[in-house]
Amino acid sequence: MKTKGIIFIGTPSSLNVVCVTFQDSVLFHDTIMYNIQYGDVRASEERVYDVAKMAEIHDVILNMPHQYNTQVGERGLKLSG
Q1: Is 79 exposed, middle or buried (0-12, 13-18, 19+ CB in 10 A)?
Q2: What is the phi/psi pair of residue 7, to 5°?
Q3: Are 40 and 47 in contact (CB under 8 A)?
């Protein structure tokens, strides 16, 4: 595969390969289920569980008193501690 230096890539083609990832996480004052489902509001509970397992957080959630119904608070403040 032939590579090109960044100066040779035009703006339209660079927009297809560049993305921005924010370091500040946004959590809504709602449940863990809602916050995970926010990425796909039509996702089933089973899909949310699968995603949580992929993120390696499923077991931690299951150890919380209200599991997926745990309120996270704005920006996850209720999860701190």
Answers
A1: middle
A2: -70, -15
A3: yes
